[in-house]
Amino acid sequence: MSYVDEVLAEVRKKNASEPEFLQAVGEVLESLRAVVDANEEKYRKYGILERLVEPERIISFRVPWIDDKGDVRVNRGYRVEFNSAIGPYKGGLRFHPTVNQSILKFLGFEQTLKNSLTSLPIGGGKGGADFDPKGKSDREVMAFCQSFMNELYRHIGADSDVPAGDMGVGGREIGYLYGQYKRITGRYEGVLTGKGLTFGGSLGRTQATGYGLIYILDEMLSHKSISLEGKRVVVSGSGNVAIYAVEKAQQLGARVIAMSDSNGYILDEDGIDLDIVKDIKEVKRGRIKEYADRKPGVSFHEGARGIWSIKCDIALPCATQNELDLEDAKKLVENGCFAVAEGANMPSTLEAAAYFVEKKINYMPAKAANAGGVAVSALEMTQNSERLSWSFEEVDRRLKDIMVNIYAMTSRAAEKYGHEGDFVTGANIAGFEKVAEAMMGQGVC
Ligand code: NDP
Ligand code: 2IT
Predict the structure, then answer these.
(1) Considering 90, 105, 126, 281, which one is annotated as catalytic?
(2) CB-ligand 2 contact for 288 (6 Å cutoff)
(3) Strand pairing of 89-95 and 161-165?
(4) Contact 78, 94 (CB under 8 A)
(5) For residues 256 and 318, what is the distance between their CA atoms, to the nearest angstrom?
(6) Element at 423 (helix H, strand E)
(7) What is the pLDDT of residues 366-394, one digit of tens each?
(8) Where are the alpha helices (DSSP H) in 361-391?
């Protein structure tokens, strides 16, 4: 049995109740076959694959808080410290009712390889809670964040583990978490990224994931002499990643015609008015449906998945895992969609991703496409360490360079192992090689 198959069998046995984690590991290990087969002896000797798929540490804790009615509520909090081979654990916190160990392990595993692709010194981690910020008052969110940090603080640190935002965790939550960390420890340090600009945040972090997604999309298409000018683009989600993907796509001349949330999608053939979306989502924390009430001629459609049946040139899934399945992928390709870049983590099912690769559309998978967010988080860490802050232009320029470099690394690795144009294989191999080298260099630990 090959090394990959042995480890896959063991992972499946050990983690049978964790479908998302198995999905992420399965995809990665399958695409590492070429590089693992070529280096089997040394990788086996160091147990690289067995160690790669086992988190260094999982912390799970009770988060009690009091709601506005005075009732005690209890959520489950986590931090998965996945891999510290190339730097301190780094990765977001997700507050969403679906959060569980399987989801956070898949995200932490992906994060390890994604962070490697940025070329910056950051390891992989992820955390969060099954807390639903929707419909909660500011005070309730603050109470939850403070209670969450009352436990988390003992596991994190500017040089050991640096969380940031993810779904349900944005500037407001990071601010409350930071305030509580500082209060408990008495330390003013870069222990979280995505902070407010008045207390150590980096210019450009809010925009980074969405902008980075468009930079790498543009880079990928430029190698085919295709420009974004006038292209019909569909973006799922309407959160942090989606909003700034739309903003940069529009700046580069694309016509973004649809966005969504978990209730449904809006179709605006004249092109999305992003000011309205920002007001609804960032200011009022409302629903995307309200866009249709505010702009004449716009339709709202119940059901988020329908967004993939819209005829478009480019699809950018920016909402959540497994939001796009094989049927959706077929519909997109049938309708002439020629590029897909993933702002969300693992938004395409295994079958959908394989279909995109098979059809040779320009498909940039999540760990390469959405690495801009964590890359700018690492730049925020750098600025915090040197106690300086860089201009927006400086951060944006570095972000662009990083995304262009990720494209180059990814396409080179794909080519080297005989998979030209298959960026899934390319990103997994390029991310893996550096982590594996670092793990071997540090011995069995
Ligand atoms: P937000 O919480 O800001 O936004 C999430 C958006 O996705 C919301 O509009 C939400 O709608 C929507 N959504 C959630 N579930 C579904 C669904 N089943 N179908 C359709 N829409 C849905 O999160 P982010 O924008 O930060 O994160 C989005 C994705 O990007 C996640 O996969 C995250 O892991 C990934 N990511 C985020 C980074 C960051 O820097 N923030 C960096 C790299 C990746 P609703 O309000 O209805 O829930
Ligand atoms: O999935 C991701 O890369 C993030 N949510 C961003 C993590 C970070 O540390 O900025």
Answers:
(1) 126
(2) no
(3) parallel
(4) no
(5) 13
(6) helix 423-441
(7) 999 999 999 999 999 999 999 999 999 99
(8) 366-369, 372-386
